């Protein structure tokens, strides 16, 4: 009887609490995503004779959402770790570099206009949140990496049937200071702060404007990020950065366009970057991109495209895994000598059934600037990925990638890998479980 009563109470109480807010809703969800990887040159070529790496990583998330009259709340707590990272008994010693438990999202969105106003809304979203815009090239949640990406920010949003206008800002500090705003941007742990392995920004502001077209979209982005100034000092004969007052400021602006025409969908983007980067260097860079996909049939799509990034351009806080090859050779943690990138690619997508999606891509990579005494060609990458939906909550994914690199890629001025092999490969198998419940 006691067990029956406590079980009914656990179901009734949320309903009683929510009834106070009229049409309030509570959503509860979770994610458990494991990924087993065989790495034999993922990220950079391996030296000849090096053994492949093999491991399983896991992301575990608990997700809650609440919505009521003129308010929404979101909360995501996650734990990221490699199987075997911790002792199998109680671990009384915490290693900060391996501590993968964190708050991924915690935000509130306040509707400043009344909900009865149709086709228009003005809201303010504050707290830890993902910033995802357009195709995630410059601002994305980096969901492929187990830890993902989030920002501590405030975003003012105006949205109507045809227009989207967002303005956001973030200001980072290490702690509650008694005075001053000096910020140490070096993150704890093993993860880089930025897409290209740089330091975390001290502050960030952006404006985003998007206009819906008949079968497409045109958007404009202006983003400026600031980085802590520093000077180099010597501590026990080792050079270290000493962070100081003031900041370097960098600006990025440009357009993104996508359109559907009969069986063809195409996208184009152009961005310019200028100002001063986190190392105090003056930059003037650009990113140009264009691609198309053609629906050959209901089951098969194929297309091609080209990307160009100049040596000075940094792709900000996007999702590079989506664009420049699954093996993450470019614009991830492993640098490639500030040479810029040309990427010529072919993409295919096959849906042999309701549950299956298979993609196959080929990339041909070149440097965007000269490499002294060598060819500009970096190499060729082939990616094959298969997704299978077992149920609405359970998905399986497998992939294999191969990279045929040139001597240019492993040369001292690019990846700087001594005695590097010319063939690299990477394979993975992932299980993604995502239950979700709605309480009205």
TrEMBL record:
Q: Which domain of life is it from?
A: Bacteria
Where the record annotates domain Alginate export, the positions are 25-409
Record's InterPro entries? Alginate_export_dom
Pfam family of this protein, just one? Alginate_exp
Q: What is this protein called?
A: Alginate export family protein
Organismal lineage? Bacteria, Pseudomonadati, Bacteroidota, Chitinophagia, Chitinophagales
């Amino acid at each position: 009887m006691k067990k029956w009563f406590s079980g009914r109470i656990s179901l009734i109480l949320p309903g009683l609490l929510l009834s106070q807010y009229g049409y309030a809703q509570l959503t509860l969800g979770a994610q458990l995503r494991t990924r087993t990887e065989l790495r034999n040159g993922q990220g950079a070529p391996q030296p000849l004779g090096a053994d492949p790496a093999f491991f399983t990583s896991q992301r575990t998330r608990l997700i809650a959402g609440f919505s009521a009259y003129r308010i929404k709340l979101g909360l995501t707590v996650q734990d990221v770790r490699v199987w075997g990272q911790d002792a199998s008994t109680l671990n009384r010693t915490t290693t900060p570099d391996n501590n993968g438990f964190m708050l991924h999202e915690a935000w509130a969105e306040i509707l400043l206009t009344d909900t009865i106003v149709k086709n228009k809304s003005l809201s303010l979203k504050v707290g830890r949140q993902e910033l995802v815009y357009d195709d995630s090239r410059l601002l994305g949640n980096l969901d492929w990496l187990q830890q993902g990406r989030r920002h501590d920010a405030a975003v003012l949003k105006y949205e109507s049937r045809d227009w989207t206008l967002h303005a956001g800002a973030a200001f980072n500090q290490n702690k509650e200071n008694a005075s001053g705003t000096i910020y140490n941007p070096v993150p704890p742990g093993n993860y880089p702060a930025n897409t290209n392995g740089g330091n975390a920004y001290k502050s960030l502001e952006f404006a985003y404007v998007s206009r819906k077209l008949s079968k497409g979209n045109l958007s404009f982005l202006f983003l400026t990020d600031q980085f802590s100034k520093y000077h180099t000092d010597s501590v026990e004969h080792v050079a270290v950065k000493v962070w100081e007052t003031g900041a370097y400021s960098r600006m990025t602006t440009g357009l993104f366009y996508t359109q559907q025409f009969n069986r063809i969908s195409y996208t184009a983007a152009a961005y310019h970057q200028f100002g001063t980067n986190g190392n105090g260097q003056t930059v003037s860079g650009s990113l140009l991109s264009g691609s198309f996909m053609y629906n050959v049939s209901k089951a098969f799509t194929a297309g091609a495209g080209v990307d160009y990034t100049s040596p000075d351009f940094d792709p900000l806080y996007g999702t590079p895994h989506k664009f420049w090859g699954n093996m993450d050779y470019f614009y991830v943690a492993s640098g490639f000598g500030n040479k810029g990138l040309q990427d010529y690619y072919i993409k295919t997508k096959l849906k042999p059934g309701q549950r299956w999606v298979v993609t196959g891509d080929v990339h041909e990579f070149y440097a965007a600037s000269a490499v002294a005494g060598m060819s500009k060609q970096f190499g060729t990458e082939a990616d094959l990925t298969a997704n299978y939906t077992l149920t609405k909550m359970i998905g399986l994914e497998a992939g294999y990638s191969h990279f045929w690199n040139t001597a240019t890629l492993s040369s001292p001025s690019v990846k700087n890998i001594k005695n590097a092999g010319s063939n690299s490969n990477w394979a993975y198998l992932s299980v993604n479980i995502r239950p979700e419940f709605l309480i009205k």
